[in-house]
From TrEMBL, chain A:
Taxonomic lineage from the root: Bacteria, Pseudomonadati, Pseudomonadota, Alphaproteobacteria, Rhodobacterales
Residues spanning the membrane: 61-79, 91-110, 116-137, 149-168, 197-214, 235-259, 279-311, 323-345
Record-linked InterPro entries: ABC_transp_permease
Record's keyword annotation contains Methyltransferase: no
UniProt entry tagged with the keyword Metal-binding: no
Top-level division of the source organism's lineage: Bacteria
Subcellular location: Cell membrane
Protein name, UniProt field: ABC transporter permease
Bilayer topology annotation: Multi-pass membrane protein
Signal peptide range: none
One Pfam family linked to the record: BPD_transp_2
Automatic annotation (TrEMBL), chain B:
Superkingdom of source: Bacteria
UniProt cross-references to InterPro entries, sorted A to Z: ABC_transp_permease (IPR001851)
Membrane topology: Multi-pass membrane protein
Chief place where the protein resides: membrane
Subcellular location as annotated: Cell membrane
Name of this chain's protein: ABC transporter permease
Keywords: Cell membrane, Membrane, Transmembrane, Transmembrane helix
């Protein structure tokens, strides 16, 4: 058996791959659900109901999808240039911290749209800085950025703990380690009244469209693609590799940071050490399921959010541990990786 | 300053160092075996988590501690097989596959734990390994308490370092393994199958990683709880680079690391006014620093992360 590279990747194959991966994941995890003594049909039906069965469920699913769109986009942008940013989780928290730190005092002095712009800028800068360190370590010293970004996630989480128990601690929180809330006027308006769904999701989709245009229409977009496909050929063709990777790092870290800002200004209102149920790590799954395409990121985020919100409801109804969501997601990631192989290669006997 | 010295000259500190180093030694040896054969295994964090859960659960269900470790090794090898299948014959991205394995193995561990174990207010416990004093040697002042009164898996870890160093450098199997990581074409030319060697190496290495995880729940602690591995796997990946892919240096790295960890734990109780998070951050920052220091001089296995396909360059 050997693999032959296909001349060109067909769009159909690329569109089928994620569905095949998700189907394989649901099929494989059915066995685990059956082990809990629950019929997989019942469990999956409950999940669908839990994610889309009511107005509240639907708004919750899209609320969950909003930060995933941005962390997924952050991973997709970086992976496309073969910059392995696994630090989305840390960058998310840096953005959230920046929003909380500036959100209660200084910014209230500014008129609203400007205040939001300042917070978004600060959060993006914080996230970008966190990724620029590993990016520069790789470019300057050849240190693998996978390990450094992963290790920095732990450092940042401790730093968040330090802040919410220290200078940013909310004295009104009855001793709970959480930051002071951002000013009420700064909170993002609701999209659907009487729900947690806010305009953040619209913002996230707009950002996706902008990134898509940048990637497909600008020199920078072409350069990142070239750097990812074949760095040596790209350098030979005159692509400034170092500058491109630094820009990609700033963009990727900034996007994850923005996710943190929006989560604070949207549904949460303050920072805690548990505010992210792994948005950064789930972003990697989102990016892979989207085959690193910005538009695919939106669809993949909704899928991952469906699994998580649905699994919580299903767990309450049937008693199957909600960790099944993480299992489904990780199996989908592995299956997608294998499925992508068949979009770029054909098997010859 | 005096306090620091006092802590460092205390034999109980050094006994703790070896105990803290044990999971790291297993993990770093496991990563080393994989990488020496040319495969980066970022599944380590999840494999350690799964090993911790499976090892603990086996004992919780009535088996003895050594059976627990053995079952954990088997679980680790199964995850290793999966990673090897995806990255060796299929040649998929070792980065993404490894992260996928980490997400999968830890999610599976948490799911099965919730499914099979009734957790009350506190996680249920088992009777863990007890320190075993080596007859005679444990009577030596200082060294006896620091080195020769350890839990049995700690002695196993140190024995494995010696064994692996010898096997890598002085046996045909070790030579084949090293050659697969440096130049798989040369292995093929010798009539061996480099992909088969890689698959076995990844499985063996993953078994060792799981053993490291299992020590956490059967030795260092006596119960399992989510996120207990706390980035130890990633630290092991950094330590392999720091050790230039050599078992002896890996042991040294793990011990230095554990020394720092044990030292900061004791320092926390002495130094006042410094937030504990700063102490906890230090190990991760130290790992990054170690990577920066050695990165320029690191002798990476030539074919690391390069899938091998016959007749393709």
């Amino acid at each position: 058996m050997r693999f032959e590279r296909r001349e060109d990747v067909s769009l159909t194959a690329l569109l089928v791959a994620p569905f095949a991966a998700v189907a394989a994941a649901l099929l494989l995890c059915a066995g685990l659900i059956a082990m809990a003594g629950v019929s997989p049909w019942v469990a999956y039906a409950e999940m669908l109901k839990g994610a889309f069965g009511s107005r509240l469920a639907i708004t919750e699913t899209f609320t969950r999808a909003s930060p995933l769109i941005l962390t997924g986009l952050a991973a997709a942008v970086a992976f496309r240039a073969r910059l392995w940013n696994i630090g989305g989780e840390g960058q998310f928290y840096m953005g959230a911290l920046a929003a909380a730190a500036l959100g209660h005092a200084t910014v209230t002095a500014l008129p609203l749209p400007l205040a939001w712009a300042v917070l978004a800028g600060a959060g993006m800068a914080a996230g970008a800085l966190l990724l620029l360190v590993p990016a520069i370590l790789r470019l300057r010293f050849g240190v693998d950025e996978v390990v450094t970004t992963l290790l920095l996630n732990f450092v940042v989480l401790l730093f968040v703990g330090l802040m919410v128990e220290g200078v940013l601690k909310d004295p009104m929180a009855f001793g709970w380690p959480q930051s002071v809330p951002v000013a009420a006027g700064l909170r993002l308006p609701d999209l659907v009244p009487r729900s947690r769904l806010h305009v953040g999701i619209v913002l996230a989709v707009v950002v996706v469209l902008v990134v898509w245009l940048v990637q497909s229409r600008t020199v920078f977009g072409a350069e990142t693609r070239a750097a990812g496909l074949n760095p040596r050929a790209a350098a030979f063709a005159g692509v400034p590799l170092t500058a491109t990777l630094v820009k990609v790092a700033a963009l990727s870290g900034g996007l994850a940071g923005l996710a943190g800002v929006i989560e604070v200004l949207g549904p949460v209102g303050y920072v805690t050490t548990t505010m992210s149920p792994g948005f950064g790590y789930a972003g990697i799954v989102v990016a892979m399921l989207a085959a690193l395409h910005p538009l695919g990121v939106v669809a993949a985020s909704v899928f991952v959010a469906t699994i998580f919100v649905g699994a919580d409801a299903m767990s309450r109804a049937t008693g199957v541990p909600s960790f099944i969501a993480d299992v489904i997601m990780s199996v989908a990631l592995l299956a997608m990786l294998a499925a992508l192989l068949f979009t770029t290669y054909r098997v010859r006997r | 300053m005096m306090e620091a010295l006092e802590i460092l000259t205390n034999a109980s500190l050094w006994a703790a160092v070896l105990r803290i180093a044990t999971p790291l030694i297993f993990g770093v040896l496991g990563a080393l075996v994989c990488e020496r054969a040319g495969v980066l295994n970022l599944g380590i964090e999840g494999i350690m988590t799964l090993g911790a859960m499976v090892g603990w659960l086996t004992v919780y269900w009535g088996a003895d501690l050594w059976t627990g470790l053995a079952v954990a090794v088997l679980a680790g090898m199964m995850m290793g097989w999966l990673h090897a299948m995806l990255t060796v014959p299929l040649g998929l991205s070792q980065h993404v596959s490894g992260l996928g394995i980490t997400l999968f193995a830890s999610a599976l561990a948490y799911y099965l734990y919730r499914l099979w174990v009734q957790v009350g207010d506190l996680p249920p416990t088992i009777e863990p390994f007890q320190p075993w004093a080596v007859p005679g040697l444990s009577a030596i002042p200082f060294l006896g308490e620091a080195v020769f009164t350890q839990m049995p898996p700690t002695y196993l870890a140190m024995l494995l370092v010696v064994l692996l160093a010898w096997a890598l450098n002085h046996t045909p199997v070790g030579l084949a393994l090293r050659m697969t990581g440096e130049n798989p074409h040369a292995v093929e030319a010798q009539g061996l199958n480099p992909n088969r060697i890689r698959i076995w190496a990844v499985m063996a290495g993953s078994g060792l990683m799981a053993l490291g995880g299992a020590f956490l729940t059967t030795g260092a602690f006596n119960s399992f709880f989510p996120t207990m591995v706390q980035g130890r796997g990633w630290i092991c990946i950094a330590l392999v680079v720091f050790a230039s892919w050599r078992p002896g240096k890996a042991l040294l790295g793990a011990i230095l690391f554990a020394l720092f960890d044990a030292f900061q734990l004791r320092l926390q109780t002495v130094v006042e006014g410094v937030p504990y998070q700063l102490f906890l951050m230090a190990p991760y920052l130290l790992s990054i620093l170690a990577l920066i220091l050695v990165a320029r001089r690191a002798r990476v296995p030539e074919a690391l992360m390069q899938p091998y396909r016959r007749g393709e360059r």
